[in-house]
Amino acid sequence: MTIRVLLADDQALLRSAFRVLVDSEPDMEVVGEASDGAEAVRLAKERGADVVLMDIRMPGIDGLAATRMISADPALAHVRVVILTTFEVDDYVVQSLRAGASGFLGKGSEPEELLSAIRVAAGGEALLSPAATKGLIARFLAQGDGADDDRDPARAERLDALTGREREVLVQVAGGHSNDEIAERLEVSPLTVKTHVNRAMSKLGARDRAQLVVIAYESGLVRPRVE
User: Fold this and answer.
1) Which of 1, 86, 129, 171 is 20 to 30 Å from 158 at the Cα level?
2) Mean pLDDT throughout 25-51?
3) Which of 45, 107, 27, 82 is nearest to 208 (CA)?
4) How far apart are the first and last CA of the chain?
5) pTM for this structure?
């Protein structure tokens, strides 16, 4: 299947560069370009996009608001948003993850990283791989000393619906591990891991694995490492 990609950035030159890169791949195509968030939301629906490469800072409705609108629209439940940013550490990025983005990449990433991110997001199999994603989530989603007072009580209560094994898998997902890696760590099959991940997403109302990571930190199940 061809991955349908929408480009949302207010810089035409960057959109052109991304278009050339994406369209050069046999398994993906650019189906539209947007220069602001409102246009991105509209085109995501009109063009049947699978993945939106979303800049954060755009005029009018910015990328953060657009991401929230896409994730809140049942008609766009299949759409995955990958945030593109010039900043490796940016509070807006975490807000975007909370709003429903599947992950983020720096605009200075290598072409292969960007193409891989599109495929990963479209497949919904894992949080985007760059190490900066995990570090950023830990730094901002669970700021402070990790005391119980910092937990989101509503999130923590929802974890009660998970089985013990599902909690174990969730901790591993929050650590950025793939299904194969989790399977090896827990000595089960990758298919079993995938089943647990899907059940956890269903019980917690998560769109994808990125949202599972957010929930794991916000609920206090996983604590940030203090370097």
Assistant:
1) 129
2) 96
3) 82
4) 42
5) 0.74
